[in-house]
Amino acid sequence: MDQIVQQIAAYRQEIESLEIGSPQQLEEYRIKFLGTKGIVKALFGEMRNVPNEQKKAFGQVLNEFKQFAEAKYEGAKEVADNGPQAADDIDLSLPGDPLVAGSRHPINLVRKRIIDIFHRLGFAVADGPEVEDDWHNFTALNLPEHHPARDMQDTFYISQNPDWLLRTHTSNVQTREMEKGQLPIRIICPGRVYRNETISARAHCFFHQVEGLYIDEHVSFADLKQTLYFFVQELFGKDVKVRFRPSYFPFTEPSAEMDISCLICGGKGCRVCKHSGWVEILGCGMVHPRVLENCGIDANKYTGYAFGMGIERITMLQYGINDLRLFSENDLRFLKQFTGAV
């Protein structure tokens, strides 16, 4: 009997060390220990060889071992039943989890509208580098080194001697297109630009622009005004009020700024329009002859006009947004308002 008890203790240690991780291992365990020809059944068969005075004690040891083996089996079976479903058990007819549809950023929505309007007027889209050299960003545009007008655009410089910088406007695309010498030119240049400005409800250190350029023979300021009148009415509606004010830009002469009546306050005055009722949306003018000459174009034969606008300001007017900083804060509460606009 002592030998059998020692064998039962060995079986108990074996069961304790077993890790049953699959239905196949569970079935192998059941057959080995609990099957009709298993170890538990065989141990109960040894009862006939035990002396009568020891049968009670031996029976108690056998019952405890049987309960221990069955508990191990039931525990492993419960884990298997509650575990991951087999691939064959997956119901592929169940509907999937819904996917939340995204939307375009409001800046991109307005950018596309602006491009579509100018496409109808025959303007093509041109693109250029955001990291630019001094010549294409400043000097070719009648802004030589130490020119006081450079103070209008506080700049992020990447390196000096030679000067490389983050472009302060998309006019660098215009100079590159003019240098190609393929006339006439009728392009718009959308893109991101950078200036070292104080961040506020009206300004940021980076923003988006759309600039336009048209160069051909006999281009006049009247052509410029008619183009911009058409653009504003297509974007904001026929009832929007427009005014031109004389201004100064080193790369155009004569130059002007164009204002429209503030659509946020209806002309009554707010912080976006500085309580004037008017919002300046773009600068424009006739391309300076020196700019044409710098880019290899005969200023005696060709004339042209140029204009530039900030997309953020247009978007603020379009959707009644009073703080430019909202566009770059990645706040879903703000961005989800444009879900329906695709």
TrEMBL record:
GO biological process: phenylalanyl-tRNA aminoacylation
Domain of life according to the entry: Bacteria
Cofactor descriptive note: Binds 2 magnesium ions per tetramer.
Subcellular location, record wording: Cytoplasm
Enzyme class: ligase
GO MF annotation, one: tRNA binding
Keywords assigned by UniProt, alphabetized: Aminoacyl-tRNA synthetase, ATP-binding, Cytoplasm, Ligase, Magnesium, Metal-binding, Nucleotide-binding, Protein biosynthesis
Stretches assigned to the Aminoacyl-transfer RNA synthetases class-II family profile domain: 110-337
Reactions mediated catalytically: tRNA(Phe) + L-phenylalanine + ATP = L-phenylalanyl-tRNA(Phe) + AMP + diphosphate + H(+)
Cofactor(s) the record lists: Mg(2+)
InterPro entries named in the record: aa-tRNA-synth_II, aa-tRNA-synth_II/BPL/LPL, Phe-tRNA-synth_IIc_asu, Phe-tRNA_ligase_II_N, Phe_tRNA_ligase_alpha1_bac, Phenylalanyl-tRNA_Synthase, tRNA-bd_arm
Any one annotated GO CC term: cytoplasm
EC number: 6.1.1.20
Binding-site positions, Mg(2+): 253
Similarity comment text for this entry: Belongs to the class-II aminoacyl-tRNA synthetase family. Phe-tRNA synthetase alpha subunit type 1 subfamily.
Cross-referenced NCBIfam families: pheS
Assembly and binders: Tetramer of two alpha and two beta subunits.
Protein name: Phenylalanine--tRNA ligase alpha subunit
Species of origin: Cnuella takakiae
Lineage: Bacteria, Pseudomonadati, Bacteroidota, Chitinophagia, Chitinophagales
Gene: pheS
